[in-house]
## 1
Amino acid sequence: MKSVLLIDDHVMFREGLGLLLGQRLGPIRLLEAGSLHLGMRLLAAQDRPVDLVLLDLELRDSRGLATFERLRQSCPQLPVLVLSGSVDDMPAAELIERGAAGFVPKSLGIDALVEPVRRLLQSAAPVEPDPLSPRQRAVLGLLVEGKSNKLISRELDLSEATVKTHLQAIFRKLDVCNRTQAVLAAVRLGLVDEHEAERFRTMTHD
């Protein structure tokens, strides 16, 4: 089942849109957040990556292009469809240039939103079976062992900056936003076994 995160600070809009998308698209897993901060926390807490974010740029804790940029920096590979209550004030062309998957004014109605959402969910590609380089797999293996960046850098004789670069590449290639999601994606792809992942979960929850 595909998962969608709707970030909008109007409760009635979120609830109504969720019902309509479910009716038009069939079963989807819909997550809701009323602020950018909560939306980013939800993304980080998921056991598996979200397939699409529907983002209103005018939120109580963030406004305008900065809203999109903050989300993009957190999860650079995540498709984001931007929603707006105003056609004139939102720089649609600039959003697309910066990596937005699309821009839909709320004034156009549900039909204008359903088709882009359907297309983006259908085009969400599965993660490649083994997209990591040998060095990245070594970093991932130590990550699964619960090692900090400092310990990983010592064991692999790398600088901490290089370790961070490898981790960013791993997150991007596995289409995840954090360490826990990376471990779970690695299990699904057969890069690590379930026992190693369980040990990681035990360490991170202690």
## 2
Amino acid sequence: MIIAIDGPAASGKGTLARRLAVRYGLRHLDTGMLYRAVARAVIDAGADVADPAARLAAARALDAAQLRDAASLREPGMGEAASIVAADPAVRAEILAFQRDFANRPPGAVLDGRDIGSVVCPNADAKIFVTAAPEARAERRWRELAGNGAEISYEQVLDDIRRRDARDTSRAVAPLRPADDAHLLDTTDLDIEAAFRAAVDLISGS
């Protein structure tokens, strides 16, 4: 069983995907962490994420062990860097095989990202596109960052989310968009429990 969860930054798709993986006894992959890991590798190597050669080299060397340092991959600025990396078609091609291999290993998986239902797993058993108003998403991400001790304003987070939305929806390869057969789930006014119940209902009806 493969469940594809897509949506923009801070829409709640990651939390939802983890809950669904537990519910259905499946493995979970936050595919955004793959691009964060590539971005982190580029930065740690002293290179610039705007350098195509550095991005590609880091993507080719990607190892699952790099995903374990979640705190480092979620530091302020890493989302922006990952968005730049993810817009590179060559990087996406390298990461695609990793994602599909993960999804197709028994008993299946829940993958969350931006192009899972449309590109990575077009034949997924269930597809949900999670969305929310930018202001609501910025509030969630700001509270998360502030709770982890980051010194960043709500306005900065909102600007970052709007930039990432613009980049993700306009990139030439695998832009952020709902798959034609995806269920839409707006979480603007939903807490995680309500969103989880709605997602289970949508999957049950798939």
